[in-house]
Amino acid sequence: MACSKIFSGDLPEITSEIIEHLRNDFSTLYSCILVNRLLCRTAIPLLWENPFSIPTQNCHFIEIYLHYLNESDKTKLDEIGFNNNLIPSNPLFNYPNFIKCLNTFRMVFFIEKWTVRAISTYKKTNNSYPYSSAINFKKFSKLIYSSLFNIFINNEVQLNNFETEIITDKNFEFFENVIEIILQNPNFIYNIKNLKLHIICNISDVNLSKINSFLTFISSNCNNISSLYLRFQNMFIKTFSHIINSQQNLQKISFSCNIVPLHLLLSLKNSNYSNTLKTIVFYSVDFKNTINLTEVFEQLNVLESIHILYCHSLNSIFVQQIINLSKPFKLKSLFASEVFHIESFQLLLQKSGDYLENIGFESLTNSNELLLLITTYCTKISIFELRGLDNQNTLSALNLIKNVSLNLTCLFIDNYSNYDDLSSIILRNLGKILPSRLEYLNLSFKIKLDDFKIFLKDSQNIFIKRLLIRNRMFKERVNILPYIKEYIMKNRRVEYLAIDEILNTDKKELFSLKDEVKEFGLYNIKVQSYDNLNICCYKYIRDI
After folding, report:
1. Which residue range is the domain that position 314 belongs to?
2. Which of 85, 151, 177, 536 has a Cα at 20 to 30 A from 300?
3. Per-residue DSSP letter, 21
4. Do both 472 and 393 map to the same domain?
5. Model confidence over 278-327: pLDDT tens digits?
6. In a domain? residue 501
7. Taken in order 222, 225, 227, 228, is the CA torsion positive or negative?
8. DSSP single-letter state for residue 235
9. DSSP string, 35-79
């Protein structure tokens, strides 16, 4: 197909398709805009559809947005002495028109970061600049925040993704300023397909009314949401139920709260969802006293996957409701923070083991039987997270990795104990059983050089897209970098690399060694910080 388009002269279309595959590769997209006009016109919309998600030091994109200020907001900024020289003139594109995704929490973060820089720049030339105190800093930031909303709305932006996170009082103070703007301009979020509502801060009765008016507006105007994420307090249960019941094409819903109320779960029985809802995610939910699961799941005819992430009360009462279902329970992800009762766990795997692809445990201490059950019932494991191994289950864990290697793509092993033997056993055996390609490998434990060299030799034919190593040292520093260069860098066996060394309270990262980063770059290996490259399984699964 691609070749036929090239030979037919349809270069712009094939270029667009290629660039689309680079959507999240920001460095490559930035390079594309420097090549020629065609690539520039194709890459710019992708870079500007979700600008508040892209890591940046100077937040220069905010200044570009301010070029589109209306006269009223320009006057307000002039009144506080804002330096208009910071605003570029004659931008090449209508940048506000490209935005498709907006997260209010990250928006505040970037605005405050940019405001610090803007004030610092202006104070260098004007010592009397009035907006350096904390209270005025907030006032200035809030004005920029509301001005950006006005810019987006005046440019007739229609968002696809909207995420509202009100976690602190400050989050609410910012969002309060734009609630009325949104209510008066329903087209701004009318067509959203992905909605995230994360509201957990303490809110007064007056402010509660404002939040409820916004939520009621969503239930009345935004009825074609396909993906809905809810994290909330009990005071919002009624309005959240209205939002759920108002949807016509809901395909995915995520609950992130202590307890999912009965009538909120029963909302999923709505006939609108029986043939649309495909994915349900439960995160940190306590299933205690939840007795209607069978009733709910029996009504969902096209459900493809259920994800249970670090939930509580996964006991015999919960499991019994699952095995009572007359239809399959397609449990795709199971990450546990509690130790399962073995008999209940076996019943759950007998019902759902064939569907399970992503699994993890915060602690596997004294859980050898659990690993043996997974080995017996689960053959399609793709993402595997192992924490808290001990002398009794390490070999069972390795055997399980070997059994699922055909489908394994992401593996995380964290041995935070002081047992040297465990790390040695893992490193001396792991390289032999890994698949020929991994998307993600994260190893976190105390490393002995001899063991590490064996692992590198055994795995030298394996390509790992993202490799993370956290070396926990307890007495003396162990330098693994020469071995990394010899066995990984020179053979170009990884695409992304992060190495984090911890000795007592001292922490050292490869990412901070600029000369080393450049050397790895010569082999097309991108060195990143450990935290940036680290995958949080919950967020990863939530976003797929």
Report:
1. 273-351
2. 536
3. T
4. yes
5. 999 999 888 888 888 998 999 999 999 999 999 989 999 999 999 999 99
6. yes
7. positive
8. G
9. T-HHHHHHHHHHHHSSGGGS--SS-HHHHHHHTT--HHHHHHHHH
